[in-house]
Amino acid sequence: GAGVSQSPSNKVTEKGKDVELRCDPISGHTALYWYRQRLGQGLEFLIYFQGNSAPDKSGLPSDRFSAERTGESVSTLTIQRTQQEDSAVYLCASSLSRREQFFGPGTRLTVL
Amino acid sequence: TQLLEQSPQFLSIQEGENLTVYCNSSSVFSSLQWYRQEPGEGPVLLVTVVTGGEVKKLKRLTFQFGDARKDSSLHITAAQPGDTGLYLCAGETSGSRLTFGEGTQLTVNP
């Protein structure tokens, strides 16, 4: 595709349910990042994948959060037992070079 | 720990005015990026500055990287309503990670 795509665009769930968010990076981009953005705030780093290297998970806020990436393609961010504090926009970005990241439109998660 | 502080947090100005947004840190970054984000979309890269003291211009936007590579500024000349958006600075740290500031929400009124 032409850019990074994310699905769903919006997700409303009940507290305690699990959710899966998907990211399709730009073809050929070796690096993939997940960020969380609370309303009106900057981006909070969650996790970073680079090729076949072990992912940098240092930004994951709790063990309820996990992410996987198959090769250099799709990534899935999973949040288990969602809490209201998890409500935010989850952004995915991919890159080829170290310095330019291309962002998807995000998934807006609302936990009731 | 918030490594990058942006100011002001909110800015509302009239079309044609000039403005400056600041991004400050106590940390040294190997590079610093500025992004603009519009509602419902992801951030879009505007510029990357790498060298201390570097100045880059993008039409009416001027970006400067501090000599010590700890701070940066974005100056917009003759702002237009199309400049409205959330401006984010991001510093590159080790391991290709970006640390983002909290953003400056700019509104340019016609």
Please characterize this protein's 3D structure.
The complex is a heterodimer of chains A (about 110) and B (about 110). Chain A is mainly beta and about 110 residues long. Helices cover about 0% and strands about 45% of the residues of chain A. Chain A has no helices and 10 strands. Chain A has strands at about 5, 10-15, 20-25, 30-35, 45-50, 65-70, 75-80, 90-95, 100-105, 105-110. In chain A, strands 2, 4, 5, 8, 9 and 10 form a 6-stranded mixed sheet that branches. In chain A, β4 and β5 (about 45-50) form a beta hairpin. Chain B is mostly beta strands and about 110 residues long. Chain B is about 0% helix and about 55% strand. Chain B has no helices and 11 strands. Chain B has strands at about 5, 10-15, 20-25, 30-35, 45-50, 55-60, 60-65, 70-75, 85-90, 100, 105-110. In chain B, the strands form 2 sheets. In chain B, strands 2, 4, 5, 9, 10 and 11 form a 6-stranded mixed sheet that branches. In chain B, β7 (about 60-65) and β8 form a beta hairpin. The radius of gyration of chain B is 13 Å and the shape is globular. The interface of A and B includes residues 4, 91, 100 and 105 of A.
Per-chain topology:
The complex is a heterodimer of chains A (about 110) and B (about 110).
Chain A (H helix, E strand, L loop, with lengths): L4 E3 L2 E4 L5 E6 L6 E7 L5 E8 L14 E5 L5 E5 L8 E8 L6 E2 L3 E5 L1
Parallel strand pairs in A: 2-10
Antiparallel strand pairs in A: 1-3, 3-7, 4-5, 4-8, 6-7, 8-9, 8-10
Chain B lengths: L4 E3 L2 E5 L4 E6 L6 E7 L6 E6 L5 E4 L2 E5 L5 E6 L8 E8 L5 E3 L3 E6 L1
Parallel strand pairs in B: 2-11
Antiparallel strand pairs in B: 1-3, 3-8, 4-5, 4-9, 6-7, 7-8, 9-10, 9-11
Quick overview of this protein structure:
The complex is a heterodimer of chains A (112) and B (110). Chain A is mostly beta strands and 112 residues long.
